[in-house]
Amino acid sequence: MKRFRLLLSGLCALALSPGIAAAASSPWFETQGGGVRLVVLPEEPDGAIPALLDIKLEPGWKTYWRDPGESGISPSITFSEESGLTLQSVGFPVPKQFDDGFTRYAGYDRSVALPLTLRRTGAPADGGDISASIFLGVCKNICIPVQADLSVDVTAATTTDPVERAIVTAAIAALPAAPSPGFTVTDAHWNKAGDALMVSFTAPEPTTERPLQVFVSGPPGFQFDTSATPVRAGDAYQIEVPLRYRPKSANLAEADFLFTAASGGKTLEMQLAID
Predict the structure, then answer these.
(1) What are phi and psi of 101, to 5 degrees?
(2) Could you tell me the domains of the chain?
(3) What pTM, to 2 d.p., does this model score?
(4) Which helix or strand (DSSP H or E) is residue 21 part of?
(5) Contact 21, 159 (CB under 8 A)
(6) How many other C-beta atoms are found inside a 10 Å radius of the C-beta of residue 90?
(7) What is the annotated signal peptide range for this record (predicted)?
(8) For the purposes of burial, counting CB atoms within 10 Å of the CB of 239, is it exposed (0-12), middle (13-18) or buried (19 or more)?
(9) Helix, strand or coil, per DSSP, at residue 167
(10) How far is residue 224's CA from residue 247's CA, in Å, rounded to a whole number?
(11) In angstroms, how far apart are the furthest CA atoms of the chain?
């Protein structure tokens, strides 16, 4: 997040200089506690369309991760059929764990940018903008649901703006890293009751400033506990993460689950291979 903020501050002068193409971004939708906007870049050679959900938070306000835990509203984004686009993926930086004395949840206490990958599934409607419906929550003393319809000019989204490109690139760089020899899951399985995931993993040594934090998330509709604490097991760690809720029709054997962690300034995110 620090690298992201430094890069954005360094881009301010560039954004005001002449000769820059019109930004391929929606106007900010302002709300109590912050704002939200959509950024869309031109299509890449492989057919992917990089984009960004930019969430601005005022001091003291928070928003939520993909699986908040006990309470909160995870960000949701849906693109209109007229845009001719489908949302392929949403990236989340490693969140923080919060405890307000009543509930524990996972989220962010600073502005956060969520990289999106879009794919074209059809021709956009004539003259139609790239439109998306956003639903998320921001929280301070009270929690406020934020619902917004954001639009990006389809013509602007075909032109590369170096400022917008740098913002998206910085947000992607802030995502958790792939597994490495010293930071990876070594085993994952359900407990006998099938209501908690047992995960063994290696991780860099945590510090006071950069403690070990672990999160597990599943497909939409699944909800895991965010208060589980890893314990040492020799040179590795073990954690039992209770599954708080799952859809009645969900098949645990077919669902994909992600393990996300941070420790000692390093990050990790990987899909769990569950035995």
Answers:
(1) 95, -15
(2) 24-174 (2.60.40.1250), 184-271 (2.60.40)
(3) 0.88
(4) none
(5) yes
(6) 16
(7) 1-23
(8) buried
(9) helix
(10) 12
(11) 64
